[in-house]
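Session log. Operator J.P. requested a structure for one protein chain; no other inputs attached. Running the standard single-chain path with token output.
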Amino acid sequence: MAELAENVNRFKEKNANLAVIGSGDHRHFKEFREKTRYDGLLLSDPSLAAFSLLGFTGGITGVMSVRSVFKAVSAFRQGHRQGSVQGSSLQLGGAIVIDVSGAVRYYFASAKAGDHPAVDELIRALDRSSRSDSP
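Structure written below.
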């Protein structure tokens, strides 16, 4: 999440709107923003309906793996710290790029905790989407 926040201007340059959906209560938004420095659109879905609709899974196997531990250690070494757990600690997320017509141009569902696409991959998806929208 911190990487996304650090690159928000790259999305703005592409006229892209970012939205983050969390499973925690909206009362935790302030703490989340302080931890991540993300200041964009932030939505709360404690029911997990949006996650289900988007095909994002959850469960103990997704958060407890050797790979997840290594990713957590790497993030810690880079200065990223886990805040208090807000919402479902077993829910995995993902990333989707949707163009102005509503077509999904990029879809990524996390298989394990800490699994997310690189910001460059999302930017490339925006570039492909804008090229395919051109006359």
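Operator note: Residues 2-130 form a domain with the Glutaredoxin fold (CATH 3.40.30.10).
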